[in-house]
Amino acid sequence: MSKIRRALISVSDKAGLVEFVRELRRLDVEIISTGGTARTLKDAGLPVIEISEFTGFPEMLDGRVKTLHPKVHGGLLFIRGNAAHEAAAASHGILPIDLVVVNLYPFEKTVAQPNVALHDAIENIDIGGPSMLRSAAKNHASVTVIVDPADYAPVVAELQANAGATLPATRARLAVKVFATTSRYDGAIAAFLGQADGLPATLTISLPKAQALRYGENPHQQAALYGDFSRYFQQLHGKELSYNNILDLTAAAELAAEFEDPTVAIIKHTNPCGVGSAPTLVEAWNRAYATDRQAPFGGIIAVNRPLDASLAAAIAEIFSEVIIAPEFLPEALAILQKKKNLRLIRQLAPPVPGLALRSVTGGLLAQERDTRLVSAADLKVVTNRAPTQVERHALLFAWRVVKHVKSNAIVFTNSDGATARTLGIGAGQMSRVDSSKIAVWKAGEAGLSLAGSVVASDAFFPFPDGVLAAADAGATAAIQPGGSVRDAEVIAAADARNMAMVLTGIRHFRH
Question: Can you name the residues that pair with 65 across neighbouring β-strands?
């Protein structure tokens, strides 16, 4: 192992930089740096060799050209111990660079801003950074390369333990991380510049492996989690998450995020089996759980408020797999942590818009996520009777729930104006009437009356029979997208039963 004697550092993210370089200096590492990075280090009192002094060539073109130089890439790429390489380096005054620390211009962060100017996007395309990273990673037999500030501490610890050198396995691991990072970076640039109708002309996916999973949907399937899941969810307690847990908790969190009022959503196999909103979470829980007291066994529970002791005590009475909340109050944690295997997940950030991807034979399907919300102002009344204010509250609640139910989807709800709850949910049937029958049956099994309820359908009623079935069950109002060639017949059927009906113009299929 060779001691690291010279490092080239050029970073846009300065987090942890000064502390890291102080440790390198204690190990007698010479520091070469560029632009803002050099200024930051000098301001901290650390000795730095400017890149222009090292190469003998000035930075130019507003900093676009500074590290694209033979003394940089030669110092990174020449093979140590190769006589011809050593001789060439010596004859041209090329010194070895043993450590490269680079993170790239924030292109992805820049283009994520609304209405970003093309000029700003272009100026945040890093050229020298990826070039240095790739040169160093290619020659990782001799060069250590860091692209992620999270690697500062472990690299310093390894240098301290190995007389200023890194281990081959570490250099190989860091090199793989570099190629994954530059691939993802280039993919983001290609996606932005090549987007057509809001979707990229070329879709490149490069995500780090976050964790291996015991198995997939079934024990005979291998599985792993990729990406930055940990930016959004933090596990506080319980056994390791499974593939199915991750699917379900994501669905539960997205559903709970639809609501402004304190809300509890109970999910099973990515479908809601009960949702309630009320002034307090425990009241919301009572309404959600009453929808179906069997399906929540082994289910996923999501709330959109800090989880308190009263709700924790209520939830603890049944067996659950996962509970998700933006925070768990100490008293609630004390109650729930008594269940050794119960997974408690703190939601660190709300779900973000972006592409939803599905694998198909030979490729991927990509679409925008369905984040469309409907307000009272969007509702178009098409029946003789308009819904009352209480019915409108129940209809909007039902519409937000039905959006998260697998098609064909039917949801019955009710409201008193201040609270709302699901009464019966029918999901994933080949016929909308069958979904309606299941929703009615589920309400009956739970002992819940549908008299005075409202009904939501994720897509249009193709025939009057679905509306008539809902009216027969006790529904007084319906919400649906509209758009059927038989809309007039469906509306006439609602009028015949004195039902109020509103159209949204939005469909929420979920396959």
Answer: 60
Q: Domain spans of the chain?
A: 6-193, 230-347, 376-503
Cα–Cα distance measured from residue 425 to residue 411, given in angstroms and rounded to the nearest whole number: 5
Q: Which residues contact 511 (CB under 8 A, 6 or more apart)?
A: 406, 407
pLDDT score, position 68: 73
First to last CA, the chain: 55
Span of 49-58, 153-162, 386-395 with lowest mean pLDDT? 49-58
505: left (phi over 0), alpha (psi -120 to 50) or beta: left
Closest C-alpha among 234, 248, 340 to residue 296 = 248
Determine the topology of domain 376-503 in CATH.
Cytidine Deaminase; domain 2 (3.40.140)
Q: How many CB atoms lie within 10 A of CB 105?
A: 17
Percent of the chain residues topping a pLDDT of 90? 61
The rounded distance, in Å, linking the Cα atoms of 261 and 85 is 68
Q: Tokens 């929703």 belong to which residue?
A: 439
For the entire predicted model, the pTM comes to 0.77
Measure the CA–CA gap between 492 and 334, rounded to whole angstroms: 56
Going by C-alpha positions, the residue among 425, 403, 508, 404 that lies closest to residue 459 is 508
3-state secondary structure of 445: helix
Tally helices (H) and strands (E) across the chain.
18, 21
Paired tokens of 22: 């102080």
Of 281, 291, 287, give the one whose Cα is nearest residue 416: 287
Q: Tell me the catalytic residues.
A: 138, 269
In this structure, the strands spanning 209-213 and 223-226 are antiparallel
Return the biggest CA–CA distance within the chain: 95
What is the distance between the alpha carbons of residues 195 and 241, in angstroms, rounded to a whole number?
Answer: 35
CATH fold for the domain made of 6-193: Rossmann fold (3.40.50)
The pLDDT of 247-272, averaged and rounded, is 95
> What 3-state DSSP class applies to 507?
coil
pLDDT at 209: 87
233-237 and 343-347 beta bridge pairing: antiparallel
The reply to whether domains 230-347 and 376-503 share a CATH topology is: yes
C-alpha 166 chain-centroid distance: 34
Three-class SS of residue 382?
coil
Cβ neighbours, 10 Å, residue 193: 15
The token duo for 222 is: 């291998």
Cβ atoms of 458 and 403 within 8 Å: the answer is yes
271-277 vs 263-268, strand pairing mode: antiparallel
Instruction: Give pLDDT, residue 115.
Output: 81
The CATH number corresponding to 230-347 among 3.40.50.150, 3.90.920.10, 3.40.50.880, 3.40.140.20 equals 3.40.140.20
Q: How far apart are CA 276 and CA 423, in angstroms?
A: 10
Could you tell me the two tokens for 119? Answer: 């000029």
Contact 135, 69 (CB under 8 A): no
Judged on CB neighbours under 10 Å (0-12, 13-18, 19+), 131 is middle
